[in-house]
Design brief:
By secondary structure, the chain is of the alpha/beta class. It has a single domain, classed as Purple Acid Phosphatase, chain A, domain 2 (4-Layer Sandwich), CATH 3.60.21.10. Helix content is about 20%, strand content about 25%. It has a 6-stranded mixed sheet. A 6-stranded mixed sheet has the order 6-7-8-9-11-10. The longest helix has 13 residues. The relative contact order is 0.23.
């Protein structure tokens, strides 16, 4: 019950062959799975924002689950649960990133009130990408941020979204569920950032996480390579179910983009 408050920063370098020279050294801070108002409140989220800003990232990427849907029955929309996450918006507004802040929705966002969660994020400085792409330009060159909608509930369109990236240009794909990497890897993109798993929250030495959600059981935590795709699964900053973590602290991940060769 102590570890959920021991926020760490992990630095990861991504070597990308097709990265334009103008983006050499660009930094991307990833946060995920806030689950505001269940066990993560204003003080904890303010600390996440403070530590993220201290990293001075060029880009901030949020990979879903601002809200928390209590219980396991996700067959009905739970708008009251979404409203509990609304106060997170003004706190997240303090995040700073000169090349922009980008977000996708997670399964808890989709089963509470996706419209409200999108509105909260958009009104406080994020560009929410729901099966959409967005170009980031620097010195006459560009890369793309692609955001895939939550896939656990069938809203994600991997093929259609990635097909809109022109001329095989470099893209960073944000998708809440990491196991979608098997599908993303069929496309000419190099990086996928995901969350959803919480790393299992509790990890047993030599065994790993005994409990993992659907679409986060194959790639539950950290770095993976699937063909030419580099995947990173962030364990999130919040918790669900119980306020417990063991051997799986909450994490902000700072990526540095490097040109391969």
């Amino acid at each position: 019950m102590v570890e959920p408050n021991r926020l760490i920063v992990k630095n990861v370098e991504l070597s990308i062959g097709r990265l334009p020279e103008a983006f050499e050294g660009t930094s991307v801070a990833q946060i995920s799975d806030i689950h505001f108002a269940e066990f993560l409140g204003a003080d904890h989220l303010s600390d996440v924002v403070r530590q993220t800003n201290a990293l001075r990232p060029d880009i901030v990427a949020f990979t879903g689950d601002l809200a928390t849907r209590p219980g396991r029955d996700d067959s009905k929309i739970d708008k009251p649960a979404a409203r509990k996450a609304v106060p997170a918006g003004p706190i997240l507004a303090d995040l700073s990133a000169p090349l922009g802040r980008y977000a996708v929705l997670g399964n808890h966002d989709l089963t509470t009130d996706p419209g409200l969660m999108s509105e909260v994020l958009n009104q406080h400085g994020f560009k929410v990408l729901r099966n959409q792409t967005f170009p980031i330009e620097r010195d006459g060159h560009r890369i793309w941020i692609a955001g895939i909608d939550d896939c656990l509930h069938g809203r994600g369109d991997v093929v259609g979204t990635l097909a809109s990236i022109p001329n095989r240009e470099q893209a960073i794909v944000l998708v809440h569920e990491p196991d979608m990497a098997d599908m993303v890897a069929k496309h000419p993109v190099d990086v996928q950032l995901s969350g959803h798993s919480h790393g299992g929250q509790v990890r047993i030495p030599l065994i790993g996480a005994p409990i993992l959600p659907k679409l986060a059981r194959k790639y539950p935590l950290g770095s993976y390579r699937i063909r030419n795709l580099q995947l990173y699964t962030n364990p999130g900053v919040g918790v669900v179910g119980l306020p417990l973590r063991f051997d799986c602290p909450p994490e902000i991940t700072l990526f540095t983009l490097r040109r391969d060769g």
